[in-house]
Automatic annotation (TrEMBL):
SUPFAM superfamilies given in the database record: Fe-S cluster assembly (FSCA) domain-like (SSF117916), Hypothetical protein SAV1430 (SSF110836)
PANTHER family: IRON-SULFUR CLUSTER SCAFFOLD PROTEIN NFU-RELATED, NFU1 IRON-SULFUR CLUSTER SCAFFOLD HOMOLOG, MITOCHONDRIAL
Family: Belongs to the NifU family.
Record-linked Pfam families: Nfu_N (PF08712), NifU (PF01106)
Name recorded for this polypeptide: NifU family protein
């Protein structure tokens, strides 16, 4: 098994490509060791000292490390954990663990606008962000403000504010006149 790694715009996060499906569809975010119970793979990666976050996409694993830890020290152990997991045949998610589409539900007022926002996120934003090892999902819409949740490499990325304001906000404003601003939300 050969696992490729790619850097991301977030220097604290690396993208690992095992060359096979991780989730296939959906995403799974594990922002802490406590959240990893739903995934044998995430639990195994969190066993590496210095790992602070794990995120699964369709065919990649994104790992975030603590600032005081160097990639040269943890990357081999993370590669080993991922390889051991896939060679073991164990599932990526426990039976009760569910991969999510990511978007928060929204019904009632503005539901047409919200569907347009989700469509633009799914077709224009999320594929590009997945290339960088992360995900951005819809959280809410209130009085012209779109609230988005950043996961994986996007969470805590130095360029995430620029991506939100110059990229996503401009895109949504262009196609949906009701959108006046885009803001990130914490998990």
């Amino acid at each position: 098994m050969f696992i490729q790694t790619e850097s991301t715009p977030n220097p604290a996060t690396l993208k690992f490509l095992p060359g096979q499906d991780v989730l296939g569809t959906g995403t799974a975010d594990f922002p802490s060791k406590d959240a990893a119970d739903a995934s044998p793979l995430a639990t195994r990666i969190f066993a590496v000292n210095g790992v602070t976050g794990v995120f699964f996409g369709a065919d990649f694993v994104t790992v975030t490390k603590a600032d005081e830890v160097e990639w040269d020290h943890v990357k081999p152990a993370i590669l080993g954990a991922i390889m051991e997991h896939f060679q073991s045949g164990a599932p990526v998610m426990a039976a009760d663990g569910i991969a999510a589409s990511g978007h928060a539900e929204h019904t009632g007022e503005n539901s047409e606008i919200v569907e347009q926002i989700k469509e633009l996120l799914d077709t224009r934003v999320r594929p590009a962000v997945a290339q960088d090892g992360g995900d951005i999902t819809f959280h809410g819409f209130d009085r012209g403000i779109v609230y988005l949740h950043m996961q994986g490499a996007c969470a805590g990325c130095p360029s995430s504010t620029l991506t939100l304001k110059m990229g996503i906000e401009n895109l949504l404003k262009h196609y949906i006149p009701e959108v006046v601003e885009v803001r990130p939300v914490a998990a």
